[in-house]
Design a protein that fits this description.
The complex is a heterotrimer of chains A (360), B (291) and C (243). Chain A has 14 helices and 1 strand. With 360 residues, chain A is mainly α. The termini of chain A are far apart. The longest helix of chain B has 23 residues. Chain C is built from 9 helices and 11 strands. In chain C, the strands form 3 sheets. Chain C has a 6-stranded mixed beta sheet, sandwiched between helices. A two-stranded antiparallel ribbon of chain C has the order 3-4. A two-stranded antiparallel ribbon of chain C has the order 10-11. Classes of the chains: A mainly alpha (360), B alpha/beta (291), C alpha/beta (243). At the A-C interface, strand 1, helix 9 and helix 10 of A face strand 1, helix 1, strand 3, helix 2 and strand 5 of C. Strand 1 of chain A pairs parallel with strand 1 of chain C, so a sheet runs across the interface.
């Protein structure tokens, strides 16, 4: 005999069948508005300072006031320094945002873009291009895009793979995705290892530097498409703040308060993969920003995503511009890989976070 | 004598064909990426024009006091431009390409000096640098002739006997399996130049080799760059390394340590280093035949 | 897990779900809230199959308070409660503020609204979750919406005072066109606050009906496998269960 359970006897009011429009307004408390304002100000200050500092001394004032300013200074400013600072800001912002989104999604403060395979997938794509690319005979106008395209392709492929696999299991379960991430990262590691083995010495070193991350390769022609993708994906991620908050109650509980949990997961994973993948493709793998920045932001003014997401973008941008500034000015005229700088700052900070969390 | 003739012939054809070696428009301020190119600039007396060198440029010692532009494969655009160079001279592996493009867009001449891992390659490299820097033939000829005579001696000694000594050239030993020079490497070129038999000639590129493979290869002599030996903790430690202990070279204490840049840079010092090593190998052959 | 269960929850009524551990009470709540698809049979909400609703539509007609909810990040109590606000398409700031004020004061949690949820005791966290659920079923006085409130052991970890407060509030909310289904362990609370009971055992509804009928000594002894005596206390004027 089939089970039948009835709740009530009345017809559903018509307007309930209308799709719910999720509110994307960011209504923030005063403290949070002040924090956002401070972060935005510090981003502007950092960017202006970064624009005016570098191996080639350039006076911003003379650049904009004097039309006959040095042609060379203008070139360095427009074509070399500006694109890399813009790129650093966008990559920092989207890595931090992807980190915050994924931490919210996995309800795990240790999640970051590396977890869903973006970084290792991108590394695999990059090394396959470094090692096999010469055999492709691509037209020369494609040259600046080959490595970013391969890296982005690798990142998206691996993320998509995890995603399909997770759906195959029927349940699009967060724990499943975590475990799949570990397995797929390991498999990408094998692929990278094989390519490293068959690569020549120079190819290997190219990969090593790519893996350490740098904004030194930034030119407008590669920066613009990348920031387009990052900006778009970021917009869609920030719009999810309402649902991400509710997800913190638990997956079932989020559904109880009206969150379409499966679509939230799909959306967040693909958008953070796109944002982080585009960043990794043009700048290489840069660690710790996606992991640490969301924590800093939460320390600043709480965990509500309406605040955490935009604040992570602002702080991630400032910190990355600052890290890039350090990387390119600390050993003038040479430069350090920026991934080295972020890890050098991020790793001890992360240790401090852990000790702080265990003490409580 | 035939060899000397071909060398001269090479110079003539090189000057006609390879256009990368054309004199630069302005070579008054030069930044160099690549240790051997720096050595060549010093050899030719062009050091006054140097405004910066890369991290691999550690010879002569004076070069290390110049501003460093970073690692040869990971140069910094703005850093380089801040030195206001008119010309950037680099080895084949100078990069990354995006940075070189930006440098060209900024109007700085960048020249890749072609590299070949043999004696002719070294002479061609020096000749190329000299011509790019616009050093007149009268000034560069003495240097080239001196090196040619070294190349000739090397040629003679390395062909003096049909019995070739088996040599393994190992790069680093501190990370488990030693990394050995196979075919198509500067190390492989060096071994061919000195007339040794590279026991890992069948391997392509620099590759880690297993202890068993090492023992089976039976190197009579093991050649190690200074830094590799130091990282292993000295020659004695090195001889006792698990993958080397079983070899003839270790038993007979034939582990030779040579300055890495002098050996593998394929700059001016490589020929004399090769000649010294070739002499040691000839002694080895003679002691083998007396036994 | 669940075998033969069939009953109706009507607005204005408080229905208790009782039964020994492992009888399927939480599973039933999960099925009713849409977390689990029943392998056969179906759940209807207002004569429509549950599966026809989008999560957002469902959130407006039924509210669930689950057994436990652990929060990883440092959300404040105020933020947690406001997550129960599901009427976004008719969001009126003042209305929402008034609802939050009313509910936090009746739940007695106004004084720790700004505290972090993670620092609260188990009982305090339950009260916050209850307030969150109340906000979800809250409507302005003139509203004629029908809603359902599913409570899975809302009194766990609560002291006597708050136990009574939570159940009195549930009774009160039922009078505002809300059907309440509540899982209870304490049979005395069930006797005192419910109109009807569903007695579950091994996934079957052993008895369904008015509270006085279901609370039968023999029936309860069989199901709970322990001696139980139900008697009418004339002083309190309600059933009292002794075990």
């Amino acid at each position: 005999m089939p089970t039948q359970i009835r709740i009530g006897r009345f017809a559903v009011p018509d307007r309930l069948s209308k799709a719910l429009r999720s509110s994307s307004s960011l209504s923030l408390s005063r403290g949070r508005r002040v924090s956002i304002l401070l972060l935005a100000t510090s981003l502007v200050v950092t960017v202006v300072y970064a624009l005016s500092t570098g191996a080639v001394p350039i006076s911003l004032w003379s650049l904009f006031s004097d039309s006959k300013a040095n042609e060379f200074e203008r070139l360095v400013f427009n074509e070399i320094r500006s694109p890399r600072i813009v790129l650093a800001a966008f990559v920092g912002g989207s890595l931090a945002l992807a980190g915050a989104t994924l931490q919210g999604l996995f309800r795990n403060p240790l999640a970051d873009p590396g977890l869903i395979g973006v970084s290792s997938g991108a590394a695999l794509g990059a090394i396959s291009m470094i090692v096999l690319g010469s055999a492709l005979n691509a037209p020369s106008w494609l040259d600046p895009y080959m490595l970013p395209l391969a890296a982005a392709g690798g990142g998206i492929l691996i993320t998509f793979f995890i995603y399909l696999f997770a759906q195959r299991f029927g349940q699009f379960n967060i724990v499943t995705i975590l475990l799949l991430g570990i397995a797929v990262n390991a498999m990408a590691g094998v692929g990278i290892g094989i390519f490293q083995y068959i690569s020549t010495d120079p190819e290997l070193r190219t990969l090593t530097f790519w893996m350490m991350g740098s904004f030194g390769r930034a030119t407008w022609e590669t920066v613009l498409p990348a920031i387009g993708i990052m900006a778009g994906a970021s917009y869609f991620m920030i719009r999810q703040h309402h649902a991400l908050d509710r997800l913190q109650l638990g997956e079932a509980e989020a559904a109880h308060v009206g969150v379409d949990v499966p679509s939230l997961k799909r959306y967040s994973i693909l958008m953070s993969a796109a944002a982080a993948g585009a960043g990794v493709a043009v700048a290489g793998t840069i660690g710790f920003v996606g992991l640490v920045v969301p924590h800093l932001v939460r320390l600043l003014a709480g965990a509500a995503h309406a605040f955490v997401l935009p604040a992570a973008v602002l702080l991630g941008s400032s910190l990355m511009v600052l890290a890039d500034l350090i990387s390119r000015t600390i050993v003038i005229p040479a430069e350090l890989p920026v991934g080295l700088v972020t890890s050098a700052i991020g790793a001890p900070f992360f240790l401090w976070l852990i000790t702080r969390a265990t003490r409580r | 004598m035939i060899r000397l003739f071909t060398l001269f012939a090479l110079f003539c054809t090189a000057s006609a064909a390879a256009d990368v070696c054309e004199p630069a428009v302005d070579s008054s301020r030069v930044a160099v990426a690549g240790g051997s190119v720096t050595e060549i600039v010093y050899l030719l007396g062009g050091e006054d024009r140097l405004v910066g060198v890369d991290l691999t440029s550690n010879y002569p010692e004076a070069a290390t006091h110049l501003p460093s532009v970073g690692y040869v494969r990971n140069l910094s655009v703005e850093g380089l431009l801040s030195l206001n160079p008119t010309l950037i001279l680099g080895e084949d592996d100078m990069g990354p390409p995006a940075v070189l493009n930006q440098l060209q867009n900024a109007g700085v001449d960048t020249v890749h000096i072609p590299e070949r891992h043999d004696a002719d390659g070294i002479l061609a490299k020096i000749d190329c640098v000299a011509r790019v820097l616009g050093i007149p033939g009268g000034e560069r000829r003495p240097h080239l002739e001196k090196l040619q005579s070294l190349a000739l001696k090397l040629e003679t000694i390395s062909h003096s006997s049909d019995a070739k000594v088996s040599v393994a050239l190992l790069l680093s030993l501190n990370t488990g399996a030693p990394v050995a020079a196979g075919d198509n490497t500067s190390g492989g070129g060096f071994l061919r130049m000195v007339g040794a038999r590279n026991v890992f000639a069948a391997v392509d590129g620099w590759k880690p080799v297993s202890p068993e493979f090492m023992a089976a290869a039976e190197p009579e002599v093991i050649l190690v760059p200074t830094r590799g030996a130091a990282s292993a903790g000295g020659v004695a430690e090195l001889a006792d390394h698990p993958s080397i202990r079983a070899t003839q070279a270790s038993v007979n204490q034939r582990i030779v340590v040579v300055d890495g840049m002098a050996m593998l840079g394929f700059g001016p010092r490589t020929l004399s280093t090769a000649l010294d090593f070739a002499h040691q190998l000839r002694d080895q052959v003679e002691s083998n035949s007396t036994n | 897990m669940l075998d033969t269960v069939s009953f109706e929850v009507e607005p204005g009524h408080v229905i208790g779900l009782i039964g020994p551990n492992g009888a399927g009470k939480s599973t039933l709540i999960n099925v009713l809230s849409g977390d689990i698809q029943p392998s056969s049979g179906s759940v209807f909400v207002d004569d429509l199959p549950l599966t026809d609703f989008t999560p957002a539509q469902l959130a407006k007609v039924r509210t669930v308070m689950s057994q436990a909810s652990s929060i990883v990040f440092d959300f404040t109590v105020d933020e947690i409660i406001r997550m129960g606000w599901v009427q976004d398409d008719m969001y009126v700031h003042d209305v929402a503020e008034q609802a939050v004020r009313e509910i936090t004061s009746v739940c007695g949690i106004s004084e720790f609204l700004e505290r972090r949820y993670r620092t609260l005791s188990g009982g305090e966290q339950r009260r916050v979750q209850f307030a969150r659920a109340l906000l979800q079923v809250w409507r302005i006085g003139s509203s004629r919406d029908i809603r359902y409130l599913l409570l899975d052991e809302p009194t766990a970890n609560l002291d006597i005072r708050h136990e009574l407060a939570v159940l009195s509030l549930s009774r009160e909310i039922a009078s505002k066109r809300v059907g309440v289904l509540v899982v209870l362990h304490d049979l005395n609370l069930a006797a005192r606050f419910t109109d009807e009971l569903v007695l579950l055992s091994d996934g079957r509804a052993i008895a369904t009906g008015p509270t006085e009928k279901v609370l039968d000594s023999n029936q309860l002894e069989r199901v709970y496998k322990t001696p139980i005596l139900v008697e009418h206390h004339s002083g309190l004027n309600r059933l009292v269960v002794h075990s």
